[in-house]
Amino acid sequence: MAQTIEATADQAFTHGAGSGRRVINIQPITRIEGHARIAIVLDDEGNVADTRLNIMALRGFEKFIEGRPAEEVPRIVNRICGICPWMHHTASNKAVDGCFGAKIPPAGKKLRELMLVMAQINDKILHFFFLAAPDFVLGPGADYSVRNVLGVVKAAPELAARVVKMRQAGQMMIEKFAGKVIHPVAVVPGGFSKPMTEAERQELLEKSREQLDFAIFCLNWAKKNVFAHLDDATVRLGEITTGFLGTVDPTDGSLNFFEGVLRLMRPDGSYQDFSHLEYAYYLGEHVEDWAYSKFPYARVWGEGFSMDPENPKGIYRVNTLARLNVCDKISTPLAQAELEEFRSRFGRPAQSTMLYHWARLIELLYACEKVVEHLEDPEITDPHVRNPVEPKAGRGVGCVEAPRGTLIHDYSTDKNGLITRANLIVGTTHNVAPMNMSIRQAAQSVIRHGVVTEEALNRVEMAVRCYDP
Amino acid sequence: MPVKVASEWLNSCSGCEVAILNLGETLLTVLPHLEFVHIPVLMDHKYFGQRGEGDLHHLEIPQATVGLISGGIRNQEHLEVAQAMRRSCEIIIALGTCATHGGIPALMNLFDNPALLERYYRTSESTDPHDPPADAVLPPILDRTYALDEKIQVDIYLQGCPPHPDLIAEALTALLEGREPRLPDKSVCDTCPTIRLGKGKLKKLHRFTHNAHYDPAKPLSEMHCLLEQGFQCLGPVTRAGCAGLSGEAPQCIRARVPCQGCYGPVRKDGNQLLDYLNALASNRIDVHSITDRATVLEFSGAHGLLKRRAAGK
After folding, report:
1. The complex's ipTM?
2. A 150-209 residues with CB below 8 A of B?
3. Contacting residues for A168 by C-beta, under 8 A, at least 6 apart
């Protein structure tokens, strides 16, 4: 059964078709976070003439936090995303720290990073196994009624039970220590709301070692059962050539989710590093009439913006593959070994969109190693976790790496510490232009001469799911 | 026979759906009794039926006994999806505070749409100024953010941002057993173990610019009430539930942070701001010491409670 709609241009929810041209709508895009649709316009021969990814929603966080007390904002903006609330919560706190001139005690900073990296673990398990894996375990052409996580549960019950249990355990580790795991409150301007006791550290450390074992299992499982079996067409699905953006440690260029310098890499692998405070000089946001989302691009390259697949301008990507491309190394040994193998096979920068999944699991391994490292540090239990802050006028830019890419929160406050203006660039948004290009490439590779199958359309969506939007 | 379930998300963040997944192994035991027919976060059923057959103005959701809807209603697409869910489902559950009371996105009701579009597309620091997107493909934005029951009939209200997995499990179990779910109906304070000393010394609230006073080595039952410590804790005017159904403490309190009010009002039709002003006044706490009254309604601003330029003192 095909899950599509064909329509003519005079109907609503279509775009860009001349009279008589076929328009195929994939709506909603599924197994992603959020509201979007894909329109594929076919020419008279039934080949792909045009495609678009329409982002359908606009909630208005940047506007409605105006006037709010800045210290309250980190637990308002976490509602931007229920999958990565810790990233918004943390970036927002960093921005408020900047507005108020706050200095963070060492243990407060360590707890912030620990929580952020722990949240990355759960997100990666969720995306790979719950959202992406059905296409690989059941196959891209399986009927939609079984091509989902429930189908995975039936097809591979032992694997599914272990995944569900480990993801749940990861969520409860955070909740037990920090109170709330979805829409957290424990990061506060000036530091963290509570210290970690030695007993809590020991308990979390034991569980984090189980998570590390599980991450090793996941990567080995995926290499053996998924990545080893990808056919050439799938590997090339959605492949485009772009630049990349991610955060690296300023001292040694290693991967860092929590802080560092932003590294913007050109398609040829050359790059420049810059401070997140300068983001608006290096990055710009283009607006199209057909998406509420904006289209960030590399303004500093001075070539403008174009999604023309033959001659893209200003296009860069973020998220897992981007981070592994821009970093010089990974500071933890197991993930570093995986990175070396990955690079030896796919080069630097690797451009295959499907490799986002592989990179995601290498990052899972890094995150688990990093959490163990943090918890082995007894100084994380220092009770001094927050310095008092004073509401005042200022500006702050907070930046972290969210699962879906570089996350920037930029606020200003008035003399009472109320927000006067805010500007955000969130992870998925950086990838809107690349997703549009990958959709075009994928659609052209799977739709020919008017033959449109459900599997073909799911393959187009698979190109989108790589980006975990 | 498994119960058919359809699920949708509207003006929301996916936190409610992640809360469902946080049922963990409980979910695995419930799953065999449920048959999902439509759930965009997990399953590839599309809106317009089989190829070439659908009317693009009539999105189709399969018939189901239970319809779970998270998120409020902010644009035309949300409205059409909500109406389609109502047509297809016997029982509609409003899942989470966005669906029941507007949630955080209803803070948008303090502003009008032109102000949002001007800021977002013309004056943002990183954006090349442009007319707001207006292609016919995009669902028009409604005049404000609505709770679900302002547009469709709702049968069960499951408050919380997100609802505690215990509450979701109770609602699903009750439906399978054909009974009304037994959900908490008191206030967060009723589930809070901290020490209250009674009316007295506090005259003004102050901002959460430093941590609460407590001994981290001691349990919450030895911490002094955060409202009595002078923080804007919304426990008295917020529906209980974040403590779960097995006797935990409220979640923000466990983080030693004042209640933010995320379960909405204690009574479904209550007004958290009016109730809070009353609570403060009856304890002789200066109501003008609230820094930003909109934050007291930041989870329940639908139903006309948050209005343009009504913010602040």
Report:
1. 0.96
2. 150, 153, 160-161, 164-165, 167-169, 171-172, 175, 178-186, 188-190, 193-195, 197
3. B21, B22, B24, B25
